[in-house]
Structures are given as C-alpha cells and as structure tokens.
Specification:
heterodimer, A: alpha/beta, Rossmann fold, 4 domains, seven-stranded mixed sheet, B: alpha/beta, TATA-Binding Protein, 3 domains, 34 strands, elongated
C-alpha cells in the first residue's frame, strides 16, 4: 500500500484538500478542493504530477468528495472539465444536491464580479455534475471488481461523509471533515470497528480540547444580545450552508425565549434554498430534528428574514448572517465595509479563516486594512472569534481512532506544530504509526495482509471434528496441500490434491525384523508383547487380532519362530512412511526386550 | 439448509431460513383477510348494524346469537376484528437470530413475533420501511382502539361449533391462531429492535453469513435480500416491481448467480394492467363528481396513494375538477405526506432530480399548498366543519371493517350518485362490501398492483438464472378461478420447489469450500513447487484458529526449547500436538538411478532381480530387501535403525511429497 499526495494539497495547511491514494494497484483521489486564500493558479491543485504521464481518466479509478465545502470540492469542475476527467465521482446525495449551487455561486463571484477569465463556466459545472454518482450511507459501492467504497456519517455539514476504500485485502478510511459531538442540527460522526490499514484524518483542531459547547453558545448569545441592546449591529459572516443553520437555530430559539424584537436577517440568494435542502434532507440531521419534523420543522424560521442590500443602512440594531464566511468577497465584505467604522457594531467570525482573507487579517489583530483601490479601511467595530466550525477536536480525533482501530494514522488538513503534538499523543496511546506528511510529500505505508484461500469443506470438517473432541480452546495443527492455479488458491487434503492432479500415491513401507529372546511358544510371546505395549502406549489403540498379530494404530506386528534358534522369536514390525515416528519408536522399544515378569 | 414456511399467503410471506449456523426470518406478514369475517366497527353508532339479528342454528339453538350476526344473507362475527398470525409452533421462534424485512406491508406481524416468542435478535429494515411501517401500524391500532368493543367472541372458534357454521366461516383456517390487534407500546417495543440499513449495505451476521438489501422498486425503501456466504447465495425476492412509479428502480443485476431464489410477493391481480387501472380510476372519479356524487377511495395511508395523487395533480385541471375538494383522512395522513417528501435517496431518478433543485419530490405538496388536498386525522374535529360535497375522500382501511371508511360507507351507500373505487388489491371487493349490502352506491374495482406479473417473472428468471427457484404453491398452478390460464404460473427449469403454510423445505445445496486466511508469516514460509505448467503446490502444516466462524491458519509454534528437566511436562501440556504429519508421497523410483545412488553411498553388493510388477533390490550383506514397484516401495531389513533411515532418505529423494 502506498500513499501519495498532490502538491499543494491538504498536508500541513487548512487551505484545501486533495489527496491521492494508491491502494492495491488502484488510484483514488480524495476530495478536489480549492484554496480560498489565492486568486491565481495556486488556488487549484496542480495535476501535472499525474498528467505528465497520461490522462487523468486512465490513471484514476475514481474520485471521492467528502462534503460540499469548497476547500473540498471547489476545484472539481476545473479538474474534470478543464484538465479532463471522465471517470466516476462519488459523493452523498445532499452533497450532490448542494455542491453545484456553491460552485455556481463561487463562479459568479469570481467571474461576474471580479471579472476573472480562465475559470470554469456554468456549463462545465453541469457537465461535471453529470459524472457524479450519488451514494447512500453504508452502501457498499463496487467501483469495479476489486475496488469498493463505503460512506459513513461524518456530522460536520449536511451530507458530509467519511469514506472507506477497500481493494484486495487493504483498506483506507478518509475522514474528510468530521465532528464527534452532535450539535443542534447534526448528529455525531460514527464508524464501525473496520480496522483499516490506514486512517487519514483531518486535524484542523489538533490541539484544541474545546471548552463545552454550551459555554461557547452562551458566550455567543451574550455578545449578540449586548450589542443589540446598545443599539449596535452584528455581522456574522457565514457560508450559506453549514454553521449558518446551526447558528440560526440557536438565535431563533434565543429570540423566542427572550422575546427580542431586533430583526435578524439572512443574506439573500441562498437562504430560502439552503433551508429547503435541510427540510428535504432531514434524514441527515440529528435524531431530535428528525423525530419532530412532522410537527415542527426546525428549518422554518419565524424570526429570521431575508436580507435586502438596503437594510444595511437602516438605523437601529440588527443581526445579519451574510455570505461568504471568510469576508473575502461578496455581501459579507460589503456589509463589513459599511459597519467597520462604528465601535458600537460587532463582527463575529464563527469559523476558521484562511490566510490572505480579510477574515484572517482582522482575526490576527490587523485594524487598518488596505482595500481595493488603495483605500484604507479602519476597523473600529469589535471583532470576535468563536469557533463554531464542526470539526473534531483532539479528543474527537482520538475517539474516532478508538472506534475504527486503524493500523496506521495519517494526519492532514492541519498546522504542523499542532499536528506534531497530536501525532505523539496518538503514537503513545494506540501504539500505531502516525504520519504527517508535508504538502506534496508522498508517504508509503507497507502492509502485510493475510491471504484468503478456499479450503475444502471436507478438510476443514475433518480438522474441526478432531479439534472439537478434547479441548476446543487448544489450537489445532492441520495438514493440507495448497493448490495454486491461475491466481486461485485452494487448500485441500493431500489425498484430494493427488487425485485432482491425476497422480497416484506411492506407498513407502518398512518392515523390520526384531529379534527377541523368549523360549516360550509363539502365541505366548505375542501375548507378552501385547501386554507390554499396552502398558507403555496408554494413549494409543493397541489390539491383539484373532490371527495372532498385533496392531498399534495402523502398525502391524507379527511373530515367527527363528528358523535356527528356538529360543529366539522374530517380530516383524511393518509400517508406512506416514507412521514413521511411531514405527521407529516401536522397533527401538521392542529391541530393548520384554520386561521380566510379564507372562 | 432449511426453509420453514410460516405463512401460506403468497404476498404476506413469513419464512425462516436456516442458513449455515444462522436462523433468519424473512418477513413477517400479517394476513388481515381474516377480518372480512367480522362486522365493521362503526365510528358513529349505526342503527343498521346494531339491530342485526343474532344467528340461529338450523336446529333452533341460539347459544351463538351474541357472537354471530346475520347481515344481508351472510353471517359475521360480532367482535373485535382478529388477524391470522404466522405459524408459531413449527419451530422455536426464540431461536431466530435476525429478521429481514422487505417492505412495510410485510412487517405487520412484527410485534406478535418480537414481543411474544422470546425473540432476542435484531430486525433489519430500511429507514422508509420502518417509518412508513410505523405509520401503518399506528393507523391500524388507532382505528381499532378508538371503537372499544366489549365483546370478544371465542365460542364459534370451537372446532365442533365451527363445523356447523355456514361458509366462509366454516372453512376459515387456523382460527385458533387468530389474535386481536397489538397495542402501541408493543409496536414501539417491536420497532425499537430494528436496525436501519441502506441498499447494498453488507451486513455481517456472526461472521458466517452476509445479508444485503437491494432496491426492489415496489415501494419507498422496499428491498429484496441477498443472503450469502463465500460460496452460497440465496436471493429473497419479495414484492418487486419493474414499473416506473415513485421508488428507486429494482436492482436485478445483483440477483445473478444465486443458488436458490425464493420468489414471493408477485402481483395479486395478474390480469390487470396498473396503468389501465389508473386511467379507469381517474375516469370513474371524474364522471361521479361531475354528476354531483362523492367518491370514496378505501386505501392504505402510504404507497399507491402517492401515485394516485400525482395522477390527479396532472388530471384535475384538464378534467375541470379544480374546485372539487380532495380529503385524505387518517390519523397518520399528515405524517405520511410529510415523510414521503424526505426520502429523496430512496426515490426514482426523476424525483431525486427535483430534490436537487430543491423542490419537494411529490406534487402533493403543491396540492396541499393550493388547498386542493386537505388532510385530517379523523372525521371528528376540523373535518366536520370543512366538509363540502361533492368531494373525493381517501381513507382506510381497505378491508372496510374499521377506520373512517366505515362511516363513509354508511353515509354514502344509499345513493347511486356516489361511487366507491377499490384500488388496493389485498381484499376481495365483493367480500369487503358484503356487510353493507344492499348498496345503491356504484362500486368500481380498479386494483392497482405494481408487483411483478408472470411475464416479468419469466424474463427476470431468464436474466438472473438461479439454480433453483422456491415459491409459494399458489404460483405453481393457474389461479383457481382461471384454471385454463397456464400462462398465470411460474414457468422455469428446473421446475420451482413449492411450499405451503407449516411446511419445512430442504433447500438443495452442496457446499464444497469455505474461506480461510493464511497469515503472512505462514505464507512466507511456504515453498511452492510447480508440478505441472501453471499449477503449483505447497504443503501446509499450520495451526487452525477458529473464532466467530472465521478460520485463520498460523505458523505452528516453535517446538519447545529443550527445557530444564523438571519443567518439561508443563511446557508440553501447553503446546498443541504439533508433530508434523508425514506428507503423502507420489512418483516412482527409477531402479538404475537408485542402484547408482546405493553404490555411491557405499553398498557394494547390490543385486537387482526383476519381478512381475517391478524389481527387488538386494543388499546381501545387510540382509536387506527393497521391493520397488510402480506405486510402492517396501524396505525389509533387520532392526538396524541407521541403515533403515539411510535407505529411507535415499528413496524419498526420488519421490514428491504432498
């Protein structure tokens, strides 16, 4: 099993995800994200690593998209339509539904507003989505004869999934982004004890053990409430789908409980649509919402109204959810510019911001921003950061490792220093290898799989039947012949192997003459030998046959008088090669003579 | 492999499969046709039904007149309706490990099985099956419980008494097995034992068997099941459809290469074309309403009703019915309509595409929004205020024995302007109507059964080619009423094995192999030998570990180190008997080369004699004789172990070991 990454990929950077895995001769690309912090060629992954050797479609067996965030799927139309890939792309139903909307939205901002060329078109998004195959949770999708994939619930956002990829005897689990604690609208990620050879886990919050969610929520509500009370405006930059719904539910219930009147708006465009998706894909939300949706659909908000551009200049307090979430373009940035100068106002960043975005700048303390046209924007409004992104924290990552029991762990999508800390923790606690390759670095992991073969039922039954008798717990030694023919492996009994190959058995037999001093008559000698053997060989079947011979298991002993010496008897001990040990033992035993006093 | 057949109803099956070491129940359908023998349960006191005369035996004895009533020439049991359960005595149902459910109609007996038999296993079903199955059960319990009936008749069930009754009561089977409806707590307990599964999900049972649900195309979440181990595959086909209605299409390809295919749940109306029936339904509905009459559609709260509403959605405007109210009355009407919209992943492609827009997949959302379709939990409450005639009412139960439908039959039965249209195929409409006769109301029979017909079955079987087909006996002969229609039976080679209620079948299957894993260390130690071109052999001596029905071969433990004398015994106790067995030998000994070898090893007096079958090699001084034949070698010597071992090893050099 070897494992590569496309440069600049998801390694020690939260910029975007795009990972290439080679497993048992199959090549699978995991996610195809774009980098929000760049506006040039660097925003898309560099596929020349593959294309220098041929077409993407020939090289890749399939592409898997874990969820609809653009840092995981934003480069997909570029990849499939502009670089050129015609193979299957797998994602869950909600991701398939929502992904094209976000891509189109992103395209509009980039091309229509910023006027960039050399970008994918609406038609390309549509053509790209035609290559998508939707998968159910837990469905085993047979990509081809050898390669299969299976999706697990990941929490994080609607439709997010972890994927298990299996080829031959080897398997990899890729988590995408996930969340191990249920929240107001999504459930927790779950995976069974699938014991993959490798677990590729995101590690956005590698070191954080986040304080209780309830505290964070209370803090958030308090800040919003205080600002609104003093007549300020609150801007919450969000992505249309995901945390937005979580925070909407939070504010909606708070407004209801506190009987607040200040308006809450959700920026235009995606709002209605977004909530529709949540209603139609309610089976992907958490148990509570699913249970009560017939009586009350949590995504039908009473207090949250659609935003109009003109509202931004309205006097008085208000709360606005606006897209996009990192303040890098669009409506949220527009509103931010309008409100930034007033210290009564507040902007709450509920998620991670990529380097290079306005969001990242103000979070790192910058208060004078250079905007387009050399304009300087002074930020006087309060800036708050509150982690509401639904990523697993260190505790969650450890929990997932405990659930899946991987043999190796590989951390991606995080920052080097934090990952190093987590890596040590994982190696200490689980005694598995943990890797954290840098961007563009290739990691190779060797596995030593066991080999499945077909065993003939006859042989297996024979063996288990023997084993069942005295002690079930004792492992049994079995003897068989492995026939290897055209890549098929069959384990059969030696007899059957001979028969199948049309070969005859060659019997090798030994007969030894053992001389014994005994003056008695032949049959008395035989009786003495019989009693002697019976006394010594307690665990064996020793029989005295009517024709005067003795058998020990399948070994035959006959006695004749010596032709010349009446006082000597000759024992003929006869056995086959299969009884070699016992036969050899018997002759040496008899050679020592019979004990005195037996009659 | 055995199959225990607990139900004789071909579309409400209940079979138990003993497959390898697991006991798997396939569906637990509840035969509700038994309720046709009971009087309807009216929601509102019905003077007609309460004044029916008690039934009197021919000899004038009246001891049954409390239990049995005479109504329009038929005799009915005046009691809480009862259902015919699957057989519970044929095998100990507490030994059932898992229950696989194929669709929501085939799980209605689940509470009887999980709550009364000591069942401790797991039930597997898809999410829509469970959700809609719950709605069906809820409606059933609700419509029976809200009309409390003090009386529970049992005297008539006495075998001696039953003999004296008129048909069909006289011929009713297994009446002692009939049971009253379960309660909601029992339903909840039963449903809590279900584990949700998705299509094509592979579920391991005890490491021995793998089961997988496949889309069957019949209803939301309906599935066929594959039950397989590494070497044998049983396909269980139950309630499948090839018509394009709302569910995801049937997965046929995965049924290929089955050793046994169990086929149940075919269409109950093989002669009716579902599309034609829908057309007839719409026409009759339009005619009645135009003439000022009401239309009653007895139906289940989920399933075909979604398709009918969709047809009406396209039909009402063109038919000028835009102002006619459509009512859907059921305690679960709202839930059913809501649930239908959230199972995007289980729908056909067209409907999925709508969800991606995002729009509700079923147009009944729009009918509700525009107030054309209204839904109510029952006739009491809001409905009585909103009720306008003429109208169309969808309500249950299709047996006409309980539920709000009873009220509408009483209300509208006397007018010839009204029409009752039967669309559900589960009950004979004449039997259903019997206690309401004489009726002035028009009755139209448009059974819509989208399940496989015999032409589709034979095409399917040709395509997936199972080695053996197992089916209920009803499918192996033409229907009793159409005995000349030999096309209405399953035709395949070899002929299907048929079963009937309370029968045990032995499924034909011969197993020859099992999967075993060779650990990497052991694999490394093997020495393959090419025996023939392309065929290699390796002898394997290994320790067999068996856990959870999985077999693994490992390197035998190293022989114990020659120990300090005292501890020897204990050590050898711990170590398994691992004296390696001697391999089998094959090949033959070329005498000339053998003699050369002997001479090379210092035997100078070798003499060879020819015999009939081979040769005898004599070592005169050692008084040793070696008989060599094509397939055997016999070494006869004095008790001289070093000599014997030397000769043995010389002989072995010429032979192959297995």
């Amino acid at each position: 099993l070897s494992f590569f990454r496309l440069g600049p990929g998801a390694g020690q950077d939260v910029g975007r995800s795009c990972i290439l895995v080679s497993i048992a001769g199959k090549n699978v690309m995991l996610d195809c994200g774009m980098h929000m912090g760049y506006n040039d060629d660097r925003r898309f992954p560099d596929f020349s690593y593959i294309t220098q050797n041929g077409r993407l479609t020939d090289f890749l067996d399939c592409v898997i998209i874990s969820h609809f965030h653009l840092d995981h799927c934003g480069a997909l139309p570029y990849f499939s339509e502009m670089v050129g890939y015609d193979g299957p792309i797998y994602m869950t139903h909600p991701t398939k539904a929502i992904c094209p909307i976000l891509l189109e939205d992103y395209r509009k901002i980039t091309v229509d507003k910023k006027g960039e060329t050399n970008f994918f078109t609406s038609q390309m998004i549509k053509d790209c989505m035609k290559k998508v195959v939707a998968v159910h949770l837990h469905q085993t999708v047979q990509v081809d004869e050898e390669l299969e994939i299976k999706a697990y619930y990941a929490g994080h956002v609607l439709g997010a999934a972890m994927f298990q990829i299996k080829a031959g005897c080897e398997s990899v689990v890729y988590t995408g982004d996930y969340n191990m604690t249920p929240d107001r609208h999504l459930g927790a990620a779950w995976i069974d004890k699938c014991r993959p050879d490798l677990l590729i886990s995101e590690s956005t919050y590698a070191t954080t053990i986040r304080d209780s969610k309830r505290c964070r929520e209370r803090d958030f509500l308090k800040k919003v409430h205080e600002t609104v009370e003093r007549g300020g405006k609150v801007l919450i930059p969000v992505f249309a789908l995901g945390r937005a719904q979580e925070l909407c539910i939070l504010l909606e219930t708070f407004w209801e409980r506190m009987n607040l009147k200040a308006p809450i708006y959700f920026s235009t465009g995606l709002t209605e649509k977004a909530n529709h998706y949540y209603k139609l894909f309610i089976t992907w939300t958490n148990q509570k919402i699913r249970k009560t949706f017939v009586q009350r659909n949590m995504f039908e908000f009473k207090h949250i109204k659609a935003f109009d551009r003109a509202f931004a200049d309205n006097p008085g307090p208000m709360v606005v959810f606006a897209t996009p979430g990192m303040l890098h373009a669009g409506q949220s940035l527009q509103i931010f510019r309008k409100w930034a100068g007033n210290e009564k106002n507040m902007v709450i960043m509920p998620g991670y911001c990529v380097q290079g975005t306005v969001g990242h700048k103000i979070l790192s303390g910058q208060r004078k921003l250079e905007m387009e046209g050399r304009q300087i924007l002074e930020v006087k409004m309060q800036v708050e950061y509150m982690s509401f992104s639904a990523h697993a924290d260190a505790k969650g990552i450890m929990q997932l490792i405990r659930q899946a029991e991987p043999r190796n762990v590989l951390l991606v999508h995080g920052e080097a220093k934090k990952m190093e800390f987590l890596k040590q923790k994982i190696e200490q606690e689980f005694h598995v290898n943990c890797y954290m390759p840098a961007n563009g670095e290739t990691t190779t992991i060797f596995t030593n799989p066991s080999i499945p073969v077909d065993i003939s039922l006859g042989l297996l039954k024979r063996e288990t039947a023997i084993g069942l008798l005295p002690d079930v717990k004792k492992p049994k030694l079995m003897h068989g012949t492995l026939i290897m023919k055209d890549n098929s492996f069959r384990l059969v009994s030696p007899e059957q192997a001979l028969k199948e190959l049309g070969l005859a058995e060659h019997q090798l037999r030994f007969t030894c003459r053992v001389h014994i001093q005994d003056p008695r008559k032949e049959h008395e000698t035989v009786l003495r030998v019989y009693n002697h053997l019976k006394g010594v060989l307690k665990d064996y079947s020793v029989q005295h046959l009517p024709d005067g011979s003795i058998t020990v298991e399948s070994i035959l002993i006959q006695a004749t008088a010596h032709s010349e010496d009446q006082g000597t008897k000759v024992l003929l001990v006869s056995w086959t090669y299969q009884d070699e040990e016992l036969g050899s033992y018997l002759t040496s035993l008899l050679k020592k003579g019979l004990p005195q006093g037996t009659s | 492999f055995f199959q225990y057949c607990l139900s004789g109803h071909p579309t409400l099956p209940c079979n138990v499969l003993k497959f390898k070491s697991t006991t798997i129940m396939l569906d637990c359908g509840l035969d509700m046709t038994s309720t046709l023998n009971f009087l309807p349960l009216p929601l509102v006191q019905s003077p007609r039904l309460s004044k029916l005369p008690g039934w009197v035996l021919k000899d004038g004895s009246t001891f049954l007149d409390k239990e049995l009533k005479e109504c329009s020439g038929h005799v009915f049991v005046d009691s809480v309706p009862e259902f015919c359960l699957p057989e519970t005595e044929l095998l100990d149902l507490s030994t059932v490990d898992v229950i696989l459910i194929s669709n929501y109609h085939c799980m209605m007996a689940l509470p009887y099985i999980t709550e009364y038999t000591g069942f401790t296993g797991t039930v597997y079903a898809t999410e829509p099956t469970v959700q809609i199955g719950r709605l069906l059960m809820e409606e059933l319990v609700n419509s029976i419980e809200r009309v409390p009936k003090a009386q529970s008749a049992s005297m008539w069930k006495n075998k001696e008494v039953q003999r004296l009754l008129p048909a069909p009561l006289k011929d009713a089977v297994e009446v002692s097995m009939w049971r009253k409806c379960y309660t909601m707590p029992e339903v909840n307990a039963a449903l809590s034992k279900i584990q949700l599964v998705g299509y094509s999900q592979k579920i391991e049972l005890f490491g021995a068997v793998q089961v997988t649900p496949l889309s069957s195309g019949y209803a939301l979440g309906s599935s066929n099941w594959i039950i397989q181990s590494h070497y044998e595959k049983v396909s269980y086909v139950s309630g499948s459809s090839l018509l394009t209605t709302h569910p995801q299409p049937m997965d046929q390809a995965s049924l290929k290469n089955s050793d046994v295919l169990i086929l149940t749940g075919l269409t109950q109306i093989p002669t009716a074309n579902p599309d034609g029936m829908v057309g007839e339904f719409c026409n009759n509905l339009a005619i009645t309403v135009r003439n000022g009459g009401n239309v009653l559609v007895p139906c289940y709260p989920s399933g075909v009703i979604y398709d009918l509403l969709e047809c009406l959605y396209q039909f009402i405007d063109s038919a000028g019915l835009s102002n006619v109210p459509f009512y859907f009355i059921s305690p679960v009407a709202n839930s059913s309509l809501e649930f239908s919209q959230i199972f995007a992943e289980w729908l056909c492609h067209n409907k999925q595409t709508k969800v991606y827009l995002p729009e509700p997949p079923f147009p009944h959302a729009e009918l509700i929004q525009t107030n054309k379709l209204k839904h109510y939990p029952s006739i009491h409450g809001d409905f009585s205020n909103d009720f306008k005639q003429p109208c169309v009412v969808f309500t249950g139960h299709p047996s006409l024995r309980f539920g709000d439908v009873v009220h509408f039959m009483e209300l509208w039965g006397k007018s010839s302007l009204n029409t009752v249209i039967f669309t559900e195929p589960d009950f004979s409409y004449l039997d259903a109507l019997a206690p309401y006769q004489p009726l002035a109301m028009k009755c139209v029979y448009c059974p819509i059964d989208t399940r496989l017909n015999f032409i589709q079955v034979s095409k399917l079987l040709k395509e997936v080619q199972p080695l053996h087909v197992v089916c209920p006996e009803q499918y192996t002969q033409p229907p009793p009423t159409q005995s000349h229609r030999t096309d209405l039976m399953i035709d395949c080679q070899p002929p299907p094995m048929s079963y009937r209620r309370a029968e045990v079948l032995t499924l034909p299957y011969k197993r020859r192999y099992e999967k075993i894993e060779i650990m990497p260390e052991l694999a490394d130690s093997l020495v393959p030998l090419e025996i023939k071109p392309g065929i290699s052999l390796a002898t394997v001596s290994a320790v067999l570990h068996t856990k959870d029905n999985k077999h693994v071969l490992q390197l035998p433990p190293k022989p114990p180190q020659p120990p300090a004398s005292k501890k020897r015994k204990r050590v050898s106790d711990d170590v398994p008997e691992c004296k390696p067995l001697k391999p089998l030998l094959s090949g033959s000994i070329p005498v000339d080369q053998f003699v050369q070898a002997l001479e090379k090893h210092g035997f100078s007096d070798v003499k060879v004699e020819d015999t009939a079958k081979g040769h005898i090699v004599l070592l005169q001084e050692a008084e040793t004789l070696i008989q060599i034949e094509e397939d055997s070698t016999h070494i006869i010597c004095d008790n001289d172990e070093p000599l014997r071992v030397k000769l043995r090893d010389l002989v072995l050099k010429f032979l192959q070991k297995f």
